[in-house]
Write a structure and sequence with these properties.
The chain is an alpha+beta fold. The protein is built from seven helices and ten strands.
């Protein structure tokens, strides 16, 4: 699933293509909003909120989308006119999967088109009611509301969980996925299996701050980087390195599933650097 930094970059691309421009096409391919039409409305901005995207348009409306596991927004010039170009793109993307149309939303203006592919969520809500779709989220690691003390309080509220499980709970802090969980805990030398209740509040706040600092440093890079080396296979400290030597001590990196079924997620850690 794309994590907070990837969603942040997606919002940035959507802002560049759509902000301040009038929509010449809006095509909602979800039953609930199939008749919605935003043509003639100016796009005000697109914001990321954890792993969610909020595209605000003139008239007090917000398009809410979530990429889930394999969704994406494809942005391209509307070189031959928005209607013709978006129709061609929709047909091209729809043909990628037999038996179903993978295009779920198209927003276009005279210069650019944004095609939502395999979006996990597509909603149209009033801007003053955005809390209906993102109000449950904790402080956003890359947002203006970032508050490490609040994140620490949220993490501590259910001390019976492991810290590895708690970090993925978007109600605690928004934006972390399996990559940033693994990288943050490795950098902190903390076992993902450690119970939250055994971690002092100040250490939880320091951990939340570390997660923010790592993600913030990579938010404008094309991919997560925690080693300082952006070359493929060299960018991350521990994620994706199962059975390979730890970059810090040489011990073979461990991997496994964490969490209750069917919500278990893959975790990577070093048993020497992150002792239980």
């Amino acid at each position: 699933m794309p994590e907070g930094d990837a969603v942040y970059r997606t919002a940035k691309r959507l802002r560049k293509a759509l902000d301040g421009r009038t929509l010449t096409r809006s095509d909602f391919r979800v039953p609930r909003h199939a008749t919605a039409d935003l043509r003639g409305r100016e796009v005000l901005t697109t914001l990321s909120r954890g792993k969610h995207l909020l595209t605000r348009v003139e008239g007090g409306l917000t398009v809410h989308t979530h990429l889930r596991m394999d969704g994406s927004w494809q942005v391209s010039p509307a070189a031959h006119g928005a209607a013709r170009s978006t129709a061609q793109s929709a047909g091209r993307y729809a043909g990628r999967r037999a038996g179903g149309d993978v295009v779920r939303l198209i927003l276009a203006n005279a210069e650019w088109q944004a095609v939502g592919i395999r979006l996990g969520m597509v909603d149209l809500v009033r801007t003053d009611r955005e809390d209906r779709v993102v109000g449950h989220l904790g402080p956003d690691l890359l947002g203006p509301d970032w508050d490490p003390a609040l994140a620490a309080r949220n993490l501590a509220a259910n001390g019976g969980r492991t810290i590895g499980e708690a970090l993925l709970d978007q109600r605690d802090l928004a934006g972390i996925g399996t990559i940033w969980r693994a990288e943050t805990l490795f950098a902190a030398r903390m076992s993902p299996w450690r119970p939250v209740g055994s971690i002092p509040r100040e250490d939880l706040e320091a951990l939340a701050t570390l997660a923010h600092d790592l993600m913030d440093a990579s938010k404008d890079a094309p991919m997560p980087v925690t080693t300082g080396d952006a070359r493929p296979g060299r960018s991350l400290l521990v994620y994706g390195r199962a059975h390979r030597p730890c970059r810090r001590c040489g011990t073979l990196v461990s991997s496994g599933d964490m969490g209750a079924q069917p919500y278990e997620r893959l975790i990577y850690w070093c048993r020497s650097c992150q002792p239980a």
